[in-house]
Each structure stands twice: as structure tokens, then as C-alpha cells.
């Protein structure tokens, strides 16, 4: 398999110091497929990054949930990409729909962030996805293509990018995309990459699904040919995250 299965856990703005340690203990004690089969990345809030990185098993990695768009400086409240590099945080999630909608991050701004983070050597989980209204009006593909285009316009090196398709209507709602719905968009995104970036990038870039993934629905989603893993929200705070990591074996058995 050219694309190693990828499971990200986005803890969002959740957790106390005690809870975070408990989650890490559960992860550390879990038996999961080897690093050759699945890449696991957990993303705690900024303030917990050092403690999680320090305690977490070495075969799992950490991601920040955001970073500033350019070099740090007089930007009160922001966290720079340089700081993540300095702390040895390898990954960052950018363009999450909660930031796009609640904090008005435009696709261009997200594209700038992705390019800047990559330029410093960070690996990026770049998120795209349509709202329910956009899906119902038939513009899903136009929306995710435009969001991807804003990233592709500024990025020439895709090895360190994972593309996360997260339909907004499926995030935190319990309304998961059906395997067919996810596969359809992932395939279209891969075609878009093929036509607009290049054949090699299209084949090698992991496109992961996010939106109400849980221990019960992960296997069927993982069985879809263009679903290369997950970005998990709520369930990544619970022991069932282990089951989601284990769904990587569905892929390796195909
Ligand atoms: O936004 C998500 C991951 O980034 C998905 O969240 P849920 O899994 O809670 O729906």
C-alpha cells in the first residue's frame, strides 16, 4: 500500500491535566497494529502538548491544532510554527471547519498557513469540507475543490500533507457520512489532485475522513478504497479510539 493508514485524534478544546494523562495512559497501554501499518497522531490543546509529547509512547506522534500564519512576533495569543518546531511537535492541523466558521479563517488564509508551516518542516493535516446547505444545493465538490485549490496554489511539495475531508454536517453531530458518500468525495478529491497537481501526488497523498467516526462505523469506512484513515474528534477522547486505530488492519487485509 503506497498510502500508510493514518489515524488522527483531534481533542479540540477539551481536557484537564488529569484527564489528558488518563487518555495518554490508555493509549500507551493499548495493543495496536505496528507503525508499518498505521500512523497515529494525537492533537491535544496547545497547553498540553509538552506533557502529552513527554508521556506518549514513541510510536505515536503529536499535532498542534493550529498555528500562526507567518513568523511569530507581536501577535498576542498566537502560537507560531517556529515554536512548534522548537518543541519538536511534528504535525499541525490547519483549516479545521471550526476555525473556518467560528474564527472566519478564509481558504486563502488557510493556504498561507499550510505553506508557511510546511516551509518550516512541519507536517500538515489540512482540512476541507462542505456545510449541509452546500451539500443539499449540490455544491459539495465545488466547495472542497476550491478549498483544496487555495492550498495547492501555495504548496508545491505534498509529501508532508494529509488532506482531511470533514463534512461540516457530520462533525460532532453523530451523523456520519455513509461509506459511499465518503468514498465519492475522496475519489473526486484524488481526481482533482491528479488533474491539478500531478499523478504522483494524487496516488501518494493520504485523504482521511472526519466527522462522527466511532468504534462502530470505522471499519466499513476504512474499507473504502480512497479512505486512507480518519481524523477523529469526540471518540478520540475515549477508549474506542483504540478500535479506530485497529481499523487500519481492514486496509492491510485488502
Ligand atoms: O472535527 C472532527 C475532527 O477534526 C470530527 O469531530 P467528531 O469526530 O467529534 O465528529
Automatic annotation (TrEMBL):
Gene3D superfamilies: Aldolase class I
Keywords: Isomerase
One Gene Ontology term from the biological process aspect of the record: glycolytic process
Gene Ontology MF term list: triose-phosphate isomerase activity
SUPFAM superfamilies for the chain: Triosephosphate isomerase (TIM)
Annotated Pfam families: TIM
Superkingdom of origin organism: Eukaryota
Functional pathway: Carbohydrate biosynthesis
GO cellular component: cytosol
NCBIfam families: tim (TIGR00419)
Subunit description: Homodimer.
Protein family per UniProt: Belongs to the triosephosphate isomerase family.
UniProt cross-references to HAMAP family, sorted A to Z: TIM_B
Official protein name in the record: Triosephosphate isomerase, cytosolic
